[in-house]
Give the backbone structure.
Amino acid sequence: MTYRILVAYASKYGATAEIARKIGQVLTEAGLKVNILPAEKVTDLSPFDAVVLGSAVYQGHWRQEAVTFLEDYKTLLAKIPVWVFSSGPTGSGDPVELSRGWHFPSEQQSMVNRIHARDVALFNGVLDTSKLNFAERNVVKEFSAPVGDFRDWHAIISWAVSIVASLRPEVGE
Ligand SMILES: Cc1cc2nc3c(=O)[nH]c(=O)nc-3n(C[C@H](O)[C@H](O)[C@H](O)COP(=O)(O)O)c2cc1C
């Protein structure tokens, strides 16, 4: 049987979508069958043996599409390996330090515990003010958030490689 993994993501301006695609690429290169989809486009989880779910963080919250995905599929997700990531803090360096210890939205913590996520990662994000609406620009200004692309591709690839290693016994290679 072919082992199939879903990489689902919730992204407003594309940074998280690109992280999801990079994770998908690493998994594909390792010989897994991978589907990469926006979380809201997923209608059936039954073809998948494992799931990676990621969301951008806005004002301390996951995007609603990712929250809805977790709610809709919680029963199935509890039965298969799941990895979770957030894309948020801008600036260089350890994303958890940049977020002053914030690691994951507290509203989703009990759900992630319940489905026994194998790992929960936080990655640095992107802030491109030319894409933001007026209200978002004000938020960014208020918090003096660093502007630019701070994604750490080495950290993202390493995390994806750790997923491959963790799945090896299940995939049977
Ligand atoms: C209005 C606004 C609020 C944000 N709030 C947070 C936040 O609370 N925590 C965080 O880590 N990042 C925050 N960010 C940064 C985004 O999460 C980051 O830009 C992310 O990479 C965007 O992903 P996307 O392009 O996939 O939407 C915020 C960005 C904007 C524009």
The CA atoms of residues 78 and 113 lie 9 Å apart. The chain has one domain: 4-171. The first helix runs from residue 15 to 29. The chain has a mean pLDDT of 96.
